[in-house]
Amino acid sequence: MKLTRIAALTALVAMLAMFAPPPPVSADGAASTRNILIGGAAATLIILNHNRKVHERYAEDAQKQAALAQQRDNAWAAYNAEKTAYEHEAAVADSLRSEVSYQHDQIVGLRKQMASASSVPQHNYVASTIAKVPSPTGATQKVALVSYGWGTF
Amino acid sequence: MDARRLAGGAAALALLALVACSGGAGANKNTQLADGITRAVYDNNYSGVTQNFDSGLAGQVTRSEVGDLSDRMHKLGDYTGLTEANSDDAAHKYTYLAKFSKGALMIEMRLDTGGKVAAYRVVPQQFIQ
User: Fold this and answer.
1) How many angstroms separate the CA of residue A123 from the nearest CA in chain B?
2) CB B92 within 8 A of CB A135
3) CB 3.0 to 4.6 Å from B58: which of A11, A96, B50, B89, for a disulfide?
4) What pTM was computed for the model?
5) What CATH number corresponds to the domain at position B14?
């Protein structure tokens, strides 16, 4: 910034010198023309140098911005990668949790079935019972009879 | 000597009578138990039916089943009592003939080792010869 001001001031001084009233001609024309050319060349060099400095600064800034952007992009990409990995792990964990929950439900259901099967008594209010009855020939024979009641023999 | 023999004989007879009476008392007790359950069924008395059942058997009895069996008995008329038809003391199984004014039923009863009823079943009249 300081160099810019110096360069602008120098250019202003040079232009003022160009528009200043000419001094009394005390020298020859060739010397005056040489002085003008030298001053113009100096101003041109100063301006060119200033422009170069400015572009260098712009280039540095652009490089810094590019580097920062690269870092930002890298960080963003790294974040996205970590996020994706986490989401995959979370999905795997959810799947495992669902599987464990399903298996737990199955176990609870089977336990309930076993408990109900063992706690409910065998119900045989109407059942067949074996009895010895006399046959028409006089001998006894075993026949299955329908009976009502509770328990078995 | 004869007096001693007579005394010994009397003691033996008394002992036999005592044994016979004890066995008969057991049979009467089981008969009374079966009679009480049968009367409770006839009267549709759920608690009377299950009060002498063991815990496993009592858990199987429903009021509707007692009512159903009571209806079947009432179709045979008035209940007049039962008599023992067969017994198996080793297996604690007993069979009775329950008499009604218009028919009869066969009652089967099994006791557990504690004297509680472990099974009680009724065979309808049409199957009794």
Assistant:
1) 6
2) no
3) B50
4) 0.49
5) 3.10.450.590
